[in-house]
Specification:
This protein has 4 helices and no strands. The mean pLDDT is 85. With 183 residues, the chain is mainly alpha-helical. Helices cover 92% and strands 0% of the residues. The protein folds into 2 domains: 87 residues; 60 residues.
Length: 183
């Protein structure tokens, strides 16, 4: 009965301490140490004559071994996280480099096209381009004027409709007043 009580107490203390260390960076080491101490204490209690010296020796030895194992897990986890962060950083740098390269290529291609046009253009080509620009600008001016006139007509129609609606309301009110006066 005494062995059961001691074993249960050690397990409860270990679970309590494990919960206390759940948010720290050395969680694996702490959990390993507590778990190793509990298991070492239980083994020391069961294997020996049940004396406190065996329980304490087992708990200390188990705690040391469990702490070392847990620290190894913490170190591996930290190394994996660092490697993943490095990979993510390198990926982001590669994406930025590719985007810059694409922009540089596009700028060079645009420059090449401009240079090619400049190299092949004759005086007649320039005059033709200027005539086309003047034609397009004139067409644009005509369309802008037609649009503005259309907008002005639409505004006048809207104002006329508002006046009609107001006049109809006033007429309906007068008719109600006449009907009320004759009754």
């Amino acid at each position: 009965m005494y062995k059961f009580f001691v074993t249960s107490s050690i397990v409860c203390v270990a679970l309590f301490l494990t919960g206390c260390y759940s948010g720290t960076k050395t969680r694996g080491r702490d959990i390993g140490a507590v778990t190793g101490a509990v298991l070492g204490g239980i083994i020391g209690h069961q294997m020996g004559d049940g004396g406190d010296a065996n329980v304490i020796a087992g708990a200390v030895l188990g705690g040391v071994i469990g702490g070392m194992a847990g620290k190894g897990i913490d170190d591996k986890k930290e190394a994996l996280e660092a490697a993943e962060a490095q990979r993510q950083y390198e990926y982001e740098q590669e994406v930025k480099a590719q985007e810059k390269l694409e922009q540089d290529i596009q700028a060079l291609e645009e420059q090449r096209v401009r240079d090619e046009i400049a190299r092949r253009a004759t005086a007649e080509d320039v005059k033709a381009a200027e005539r086309e620009a003047a034609r397009v600008e004139a067409e644009l001016a005509i369309k802008k004027k037609a649009y503005e006139e259309s907008q002005a007509r639409a505004l006048r129609i809207q104002e006329a409709q508002e006046r009609i609606a107001k006049a109809q309301e006033e007429l309906a009110e007068l008719e109600r007043q006449e009907a009320a006066a004759t009754n």
